[in-house]
Amino acid sequence: MAQHPSKNGPAVPSADMPPAMAEIKSQSVDDVMKEMNRMPLFMTTLDETDGEGGDNDALEALKALAYEGTRAEIAENFRQQGNECARAKQWTDAKEFYDKGIAALKAPKQEPAPEEGPEVIDTTDIKLNQEQEAKKERDIAEACHINRALCNLEKKNYRSCIQDCAATIRLNSSNIKAYYRSGLACLSLDKIPEATDACELGLELEPSNASLKTLQTKIAARMTHLKSVEKSRKEREAKAASERATLALALKSRGIKSRSTNQAPDLEDAVVKLDNVLDPSSTLSFPVLLLYPTHSQSDFIKAFGESETLSQHLEYIFPLPWDERQEFTLKDVEAYMETIAGGLIKMGKKMTLNKVLGSGKCEVVDGLVRINVLPQGKAAGWIEEFKKRRGSN
């Protein structure tokens, strides 16, 4: 026994600390907290080890308890744990517990161990117990499914929510929550007919249910909105189709050929268009790419009117900032366009774009007109190179 001095006299005998307490006293606070965290009762974080890489026997024993008893008892335990998490809005954890509860009800039944002594079987009691157990399992399954439906609804897993509601209704066709949550999930997916059906079936059971009435109003409002959106979409599509038809008529009436490829460039909002999109006789304009092949340069004209000439645009484009030798002047350049046959046609600088395109020799490819502009002194050489490339192809 240890001796401890007294303030006013001789030492007073006291009891020694128990070995376990003495061991704890010798540890740091962090070590004590770490050790306590491995005890299921004091856990703040899940620690499945014994501190040395082995199993936490106390925790494993506690886990095993969750799977002892009948299927209904095991499932009910998981259901209650799921409810606790749901009340705390811990939807993911709650869903996992409901998953386990439903799985437990699908597990094979465990037959009780036979008791010693003469066997006396009362078939009436057995049948009654089986019926009671089956009803208990159905009730727990219904609760797990409808509660898991709530978890899926909160997690925006709408299709899973609908499936859980369907499973609930198969177990109990009078479950109002199943119709309500199914209706909400269907509404979230814009499944309006399905949402309407779920809501109406629920109201047949409880005509005064406030939640279902509110849902019915939301469904009606969403239906009106979707109809309006669909009407606008159809109107836009009809307008676009009419504009395309008018443009096609305008090109055909002018003898202008066009085609599209699978390598169309991104021209953003630059397109072949009419001044009045619904009048084929109004002025056409084209996006035009001016190419300077001898210098690997280019300029882009977003809207080149059909009645305009090349010289009208070159007047404000020239002089070119990179043309150090001043080879590109309005009077010293020539312009060429590729023909449909694969050759070249010389484009007069004072010739309107409509006249060139309307000749039927050239075409508008992918909504873009391409014009090659060259210094007169280099045009012949470029043409020869062009023919050689075409010949080799």
TrEMBL record:
<dbReference type="GO" id="GO:0005829">
    <property type="term" value="C:cytosol"/>
</dbReference>
<dbReference type="GO" id="GO:0006457">
    <property type="term" value="P:protein folding"/>
</dbReference>
<dbReference type="GO" id="GO:0051879">
    <property type="term" value="F:Hsp90 protein binding"/>
</dbReference>
<dbReference type="InterPro" id="IPR044059">
    <property type="entry name" value="Csn1/TTC4_wheel"/>
</dbReference>
<feature type="domain" description="Cns1/TTC4 wheel">
    <location>
        <begin position="278"/>
        <end position="386"/>
    </location>
</feature>
<dbReference type="GO" id="GO:0005634">
    <property type="term" value="C:nucleus"/>
</dbReference>
<keyword id="KW-0677">Repeat</keyword>
<protein>
    <submittedName>
        <fullName>TPR-like protein</fullName>
    </submittedName>
</protein>
<dbReference type="Pfam" id="PF18972">
    <property type="entry name" value="Wheel"/>
</dbReference>
<feature type="region of interest" description="Disordered">
    <location>
        <begin position="1"/>
        <end position="23"/>
    </location>
</feature>
<dbReference type="InterPro" id="IPR019734">
    <property type="entry name" value="TPR_rpt"/>
</dbReference>
<comment type="similarity">
    <text>Belongs to the TTC4 family.</text>
</comment>
<dbReference type="InterPro" id="IPR011990">
    <property type="entry name" value="TPR-like_helical_dom_sf"/>
</dbReference>
<keyword id="KW-0802">TPR repeat</keyword>
<dbReference type="GO" id="GO:0030544">
    <property type="term" value="F:Hsp70 protein binding"/>
</dbReference>
